Amino acid sequence: MSPRALLLVNHHSRQGQTRCLEAIHCLETLGFHVIEQSTEHPQNLGETIHHYRDDVDLVIVGGGDGTLNAAVDAIVDTQLPLGILPMGTANDLARTLGIPASIPEACKLIAAGNLRRIDLGCVNNKYFFNVASLGLSVKITQRLTKEVKRRWGIFAYAATALRVIWESRPFSAEICMNGQSILVKTVQIAIGNGRYYGGGMAVVHDATIDDQRLDLYSMEIEHWWQILLLLPAMRQGRHIHWSNVRALHGQEIEIYTRKPRPINTDGEITTYTPASFRVIPRAIAVFVPPA
Fold it and tell me: Interior CA angle at 93 toward 109 and 244, to 5°?
């Protein structure tokens, strides 16, 4: 009997409209029975997954990190295996898991059937795959419109980041973890579950998505130009060794600010401080390349 796959494609993702038919053809050639339910509103993905939960054997999501984030709550609830077809701008989760950018190759990977259970982060009861952050990254998210990402692709992150960095101002926060309370003045706090975020930057050089920990860094600089010096190290996650970057890790973290500040999870603003973070070990199963 052919495996039944629910294929969800975000037509607003950078490659969604053009790659959907290619994905269906590849999956059917590989022996899948495909139920395709494309959407222009990612917030509806959870409802669709719940509707088909008893009619399919797996869920395949075509889109970027924001699309995957919109589906994650339903994946946790149903415990259906997750296949990923990278069709977004950054595709940081796919990069973390080693999933190829080629749609035919990503489909073959799903057909090979190699599953790996991965952790999820959770902030204020909202799950995330990659990173939750406040500060600079939120402002970048607010500036990155769909039109900009569609037109400029991965380069949109760099151009927008440079503009936001120039305008950056520190804010005060309290970080509580491992029985400690730490007061900081920072331009960005990022809490990572996976390794990559923001178009290929690494939270920490040795982070994995199944290490059952959250990795935090706080960028405590005084002048905007200091961020530019950090950027090359951030590509490899080596910025944590710099004197003006605080690095911590644990399973539970709380962050407080004087006034509510928005929090970005996997590229979407979903909650505000005060924020309670925790790691959910081995939360879902994802199709990945062989070890």
Answer: 150
CA atoms within 13 A on the CB side of 14: 22
Query: Would you call 268 helix, strand, or coil by DSSP?
Result: strand
Whether 109 and 130 map to the same domain: the answer is no
Contacts of 223 (CB under 8 A, 6+ apart): none
pLDDT at 142 over 90: no
Rounded to an integer, the average pLDDT of 119-139 is 92
User: Based on the domain organization, do 143 and 176 belong to the same domain?
Assistant: yes
| Residue 120 covered by a domain | no
Q: Which domain holds residue 222?
A: 126-281
Interval 165-202: pLDDT, tens: 666 788 999 999 988 999 999 999 999 999 988 778 88
- Which residues, 6+ apart, have CB-to-CB distance to 192 below 8 Å? 121, 130, 131, 203, 204, 207, 214, 215, 216
Q: Is the pLDDT of residue 224 over 70?
A: no
Same-domain status, 158 and 267: yes
249 and 168 in a single domain? The answer is yes
Give the end of a domain, one of 58, 84, 113: 113
User: How far apart, in whole angstroms, are the C-alpha atoms of residue 206 and residue 165?
Assistant: 26
Of the two residues 110 and 149, the one the predictor is more confident about is: 110
Q: Looking at the domain assignment, is residue 56 inside a domain?
A: yes
* DSSP classification of residue 14: T
